[in-house]
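This part of the workshop introduces the protein records we will be handling. An example says more than a description, so a record of this kind follows:
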Amino acid sequence: MNNFLDMITLVNDKINGFVWVTIGLWLLIGTGIIMTFVTGFFQVTHIGHWMKKTVGGVFQKSAHNKKEKGSVSQFQALCTALAATIGTGNIAGVAAAIVIGGPGAVFWMWVAAFFGMMTNYSENILGIFFRRKNKDGEWSGGAMYYLQDGLGDKKRPRALQIIGKTLAIIFAICAFLASFGIGNMGQINKIVLNVQSAFFSNVEVAPLFGVLPTIPFIIGFVIMAVAALIIIGGLKRIAAVAEKVVPFMAVLYIIGALIIICVHFNSIIPAFLSIFKFAFGAKAVVGGTVGAMFKSAITQGCKRGVFSNEAGLGSSVMVHSNSDVKEPVKQGLWGIFEVFADTFVVCSMTAIVVLTSGYIDLETGHFIDVAGVSDANLVAKAFGGVFGPAGEWFIALAIFLFAFTTILGWSHYGSKAVEYLINEKAVIVFRILFVSFMIVGALSTSSLAWDISDTFNGMMMIPNLIGVLSLAPLVYRLTKNYVDRKIHGKDEKPMLSYFPEIQEEHEKKVLEGEE
């Protein structure tokens, strides 16, 4: 049995390395660069517009009002997407990037996010353009639909139709499998470990039924019960919870981080200087070379950035497509903001907290080896250094909320994958199965399941990015159409949907001023 597991581990490591490092990371960055040029550096040239329509729109009633059955508001769609992306990667992931790749990794995390903004934008406008209503009257959209109907358009050669449909199925299968690992059991496992470490580290309880670890089982069972009440209720209930929890947890975390940064005020400028100094391998690392440090900084920064904001994976498209918005580009603007909030705000706060904590030598870029401190608990120790034990408890709570809301978001992604592969009736079975697997994650100690699901997560992005790149001309036309009408005031017919009947319905509402 051990030999069999070793073989699976070896095969998965090879596939994972190929998917994420050999091809995936560069495909992600390359796609972001291409889409940035295709849209005319939209994230920069129209920064005032998208900030006004997103950050400014948060305080407008239209962003919160749901206007039609089977949809969620634009803000709810954003919060649900952020629920799945703002997770443990924003805390432990950023710390790991700095420990492994040095302070320069933060710079490359920003670079990946800068271009990732337009990848996420492109995914979301394609998701809205190719979405359709299912039998329950709910919007269904995502990479599988723009692969099937965009790349695989019936007007295209038969070979492309087959390729489009095949890639759509591969994407949906990988999304379904990843939802159980990265989006479920892996998150529950992190919650249990952190809660047990923070609150029950000195508590010894006899195994339940003589076999099951009692504390992990109780924690897992309680979380499973709460999650079931939300997930079984479907997207509307998930979105309602996300709308309240995500802003609360993000703002609270940012406030805590700002307090720590202010306490370490004298280290702020040196921290920023170290980010830019080591971004290009300014000094050699012990036992290595400038080139090795440079490569590590790029790899860790880009990889952690992508892991955090998920731009290019095609995951958040499935919830953005449920928005009640009519204009594809309008929802795409929220996609830009999603990456901005996740990486440039939350991840950057974590990075500065780590760099000003005293655990990183800003002169050499090295992690200072202190007993009991590792990349896994580095942020908690930084908070504890200012707030005492309460700081570490706060990070445990933050990880709990981050991971829990990630589970809620991924439950929707998995349900949409099942809906595409089977039908709407199968979704309720998936949700019950999804909730049941939480207890498995709570009790599990093996990392193999998470490693395999991480591979499937990465495999989602390859068909998705093929779809985005193949439809780049459409992204250009949709963007130009929106800019000409909404920014330059030209009188042109809006491009709203791939389907004539939806185009006609939405066009009427847009022209009547409902959006």
Summary: The two ends are 60 Å apart (CA to CA). The CA atoms of residues 135 and 445 lie 41 Å apart.
